[in-house]
Specification:
The protein has 79 residues and is mainly alpha-helical. It has one domain: SAP domain (Transcription Termination Factor Rho, Rna-binding Domain, Chain A, Domain 1, Orthogonal Bundle). The chain is 73% helix and 0% strand. It is built from five helices and no strands. It is globular and about 35 Å long.
Length: 79
């Protein structure tokens, strides 16, 4: 089991860290364009986003997928 976690890029990463990193990378406007949820569009904040994402599995999954794809694109720069 421990071996699986070493290769899991989400291991030890909190939802708050994910949201903060995505906001730093994209900004709220672009984040709202990429994931169509109101907490990113209307008066966005990390706190309100976390509250919504913790109660809404489909939205959390989309945020986690965007985080993973953003990580992948940063670690493999295109030439």
């Amino acid at each position: 089991m421990k071996m699986e976690q070493t290769n899991n890029p989400m291991h030890g990463v909190t939802l708050e860290t994910i949201v903060v990193k995505l906001v730093e990378h994209y900004g709220w406007d672009e984040l709202a364009n990429r994931i169509k949820i109101n907490c990113f569009k209307n008066d966005p904040s990390v706190k309100s986003s976390l509250k919504f994402l913790r109660k809404t599995p489909w939205a959390r999954e989309q945020v986690e997928q965007l985080y993973l794809s953003t990580l992948a694109s940063q670690s493999h720069p295109r030439t």
